[in-house]
Amino acid sequence: MKIQTFVKRSIIDAPAEDVFEWHAQKGAIRRLSPPWSPLKIISKTPGVDTGTQVRLKIKTGPVFSTWNAVHTACEPGRMFRDTQVKGPFKSWNHTHRFIPSDNNAILEDRIEFALPFPASHSRLINKYVHKDLERIFTYRHAITQRDLFLHRNTPLPRHSRIAITGASGLIGSRLVPFLTTGGHEVYTLVRRKPDPENLEIFWDPEQEILDPKDLEGMDVVIHLAGENIGEVRWTDAIKHRLTQSRVKGTTLLSNTLARLEKPPKVFLCASAIGYYGHTGDTICDESSQSGNQYISSMCKAWEDACEPAIQGGIRTANMRIGVVYSPEGGALSKLLPLFNIGLGASMGSGSQFISWISMEDTLYAMHHLITDTHLYGPVNLVAPNPQTNKALSRILAKKLKRPALFNIPESIIRARFGQMGEEILLSSARIHPEKLLTSGYSFIHPEIDSALNEVLGV
User: Fold this and answer.
1) β-pairing, 283-284 with 430-431?
2) What is the CATH number for 20?
3) Bridge partners for 324 per DSSP
4) Which of 40, 77, 313, 356 has the least CB density, counted as fewest CB within 10 Å?
């Protein structure tokens, strides 16, 4: 059995003890999971001490594999090691080292592994494994560096109490580990029997059930829950359901927060750039009027439901979120299978603008909204450089090294998707993040090129 070694080192702008602690926090594994190869945590015992166990399902391409590991060594502040008990490798030992270097740390990931293949097959596979590990750990080290810099240089106190709805959704599932690795207590609102040990809070917007005591003393409340608008063809009944799924939950939260003895300092409520409707080539910012589409009226009703919290003196921000680009869900996850097999296409004329935002900027912009006390009201969460549908199709195809030769006519989109296709796929939204930029927020991914590089690992 031939042992292979992979090593990745980076200088992190933080003391070694802080880098170790960040890795030891709840949610670190999920935070470090690359979006092109997501993992699912089946079970994990807390911390990184010797004896800690973790069971994962890891997706590689279309295949999930089970991975059981145990931590076999730990020196607090300096290192820990995890060893594969069951998984795709013949053997696997991963040593995480945190080496002091002046006021910084050298983060070293050293992996010693053996493949379960005969030697005659191993050379080519070894080359692939090393290339894949380089992609993964380049991503992991970049996330570690950025997160630690942000958490160490912003005024949000550690151990802030933060409540989140929609924590299992595309954004929420990434937001929770981002906040827990920052040392915060994150409570999630669920509609099933809650697990208090995992800081879960029961609520039922349909039945208007939410115990105010459960939110008493929260520092921040973030409301992301709402039924997915792009999954089904819209009928009048479905449009009513989509609106109510947002308005009822927001109304319940707003009324509850306004009555608390110790309300949160800030309430972030999701909305969408659909508020502006079809804007054509016109650039819109937060001062622009709402559009005249169904989705515009839905977003306006959603935002209006925050009024009780505003009247209660809670700083409230309506996050008008653009198209979040992530392989784990949303628009990009639907496009990738087609583009990967060379069937990429633009929609309609392809001239409609798409105001997109990377997942990382979505998370960091939310953190910025929490910490900047001058931000309230509508805030556009979009990158400063929207692209046309045709341009995005061309850029994505180039990243994947595939052609994008096709075009789906507007008539087919309208026939297949009806009003939903008209408002989601064919409408143009050229939105500018005026408030974020003037407040000093610096985008990690202002251009689509760097955003796709990171989420696709290219």
Assistant:
1) parallel
2) 3.30.530.20
3) 357
4) 313
pLDDT digits (tens, 9 = 90+) for 318-377: 999 999 999 999 989 999 999 999 999 999 999 999 999 999 999 999 999 999 999 999
Q: Looking at the structure, do residues 169 and 204 belong to the same domain, yes or no?
A: yes
The answer to whether residue 120 scores a pLDDT higher than 60 is no
Residues 25 and 102 reside in one and the same domain: yes
Structural domain boundaries enclosing 197: 161-456
- Residue bearing tokens 């009555």: 259
Give the sheet arrangement for strand 39-44, strand by strand: 4-12, 104-114, 91-101, 79-86, 63-75, 53-60, 39-44
pLDDT higher than threshold 60 for residue 252: yes
**Amino acid found at 69:** A
**188 in the same domain as 51:** no
pLDDT of amino acid 119:
56
The whole model's pTM is what? 0.94
Residues 48 and 93 in one domain: yes
Domain end (from 129, 152, 175): 152
Q: Mind giving me the DSSP string for 334-363?
A: HHHHHHHTT--EEETTS-SEE-EEEHHHHH
pLDDT tens digits, 82-95: 999 998 888 999 99
Both structure tokens of 200: 């879960």
Among the listed residues 390, 388, 425, the one whose alpha carbon sits nearest the alpha carbon of residue 407 = 390
Say whether both 252 and 291 belong to one domain: yes
What confidence tens digit (pLDDT) does each residue in 389-427 have? 999 999 999 999 999 888 999 999 999 999 999 999 999
Q: Does 343 share its domain with 257?
A: yes
